[in-house]
Prior knowledge:
Blueprint lengths: L6 E6 L24 H4 L2 H6 L1 H17 L4 H12 L4 E6 L5 H4 L5 E3 L2 E8 L5 E3 L19 E5 L9 H10 L2 E5 L11 H7 L3 E6 L11 E4 L2 H12 L2
Parallel strand pairs: 1-2, 1-7, 2-3, 7-8, 8-9
Antiparallel strand pairs: 4-5, 4-6
Helix pairs in contact: 4-8
The protein binds 2'-O-acetyl adenosine-5-diphosphoribose (OAD).
2'-O-acetyl adenosine-5-diphosphoribose binds next to strand 8.
Amino acid sequence: MAERYKNIVILTGAGISAESGLSTFRSENGLWNNHRVEDVASVEGFARNPEYVHEFYNELRPLLFKAEPNSAHLAITKLQENYKAENISIITQNVDTLHEKAKSKNIYHIHGQINQIVCLNCGHIFETWGETHTDDACPNCKVAGMLKPNIVFFGENLLYMNEVDYLLNKCDLFISVGTSGVVYPAAGFVQIAYLNGAKTIEFNMEQTSNNYMFSEHIIGKAGTTLPKFIDELLK
Ligand code: OAD
């Protein structure tokens, strides 16, 4: 009989979407698609050349729109639907919407979402899978030139940090799936869970540099290893 957990946090990164055909960030021909991170995902880059940044996300949006969830995303939904816990939450660094397409719940997009735009004038957030450009007007306040993809750029605060902090301090099982663990603060989440006594398990193709904070490493493709692990938990 598998151990019982009450509060489970699943942190996901680009690796969980790799088997859905999406490139990870730090692989060859990664998601940055030969653009400099400083140009397309930083506050300074956006201030310098907003149209270049809009174009980058305009090109990425249709790829993410077309992508379908894989067996790792679906296994998480199966866990949420069938495991008797108080709470099972997903903290994702991914800007794709594959957890939503897999019909998961309790999803926190701490790095934002590709299909959302935020108005820097009034704070209004709206959804679109279409293109946005520098001179577009906000549908709420009507001011032009203030729209930004709702993606957290380097130099900005992560989203949902109060909720995330609460979940990490409460969880008794922390699972990390397909993240290299090099971008903070998300890379430090395992430490919070570990120091609070949670069991910490990493699913990755390789051990990451966070390795001493994980109680267990499950090496392999998440699309294979995660469903197997979740089926064991559900026994
Ligand atoms: P990375 O590209 O840094 O890391 C992806 C990880 O997934 C690597 O450790 C791979 O070994 C692993 N991986 C690849 N394929 C896998 C598979 N099939 N199964 C399991 N693991 C696999 O992506 P992230 O860690 O998500 O921020 O990157 C963190 C952040 O860096 C991103 O959210 C992004 C970027 O700055 C923003 O866009 C704001």
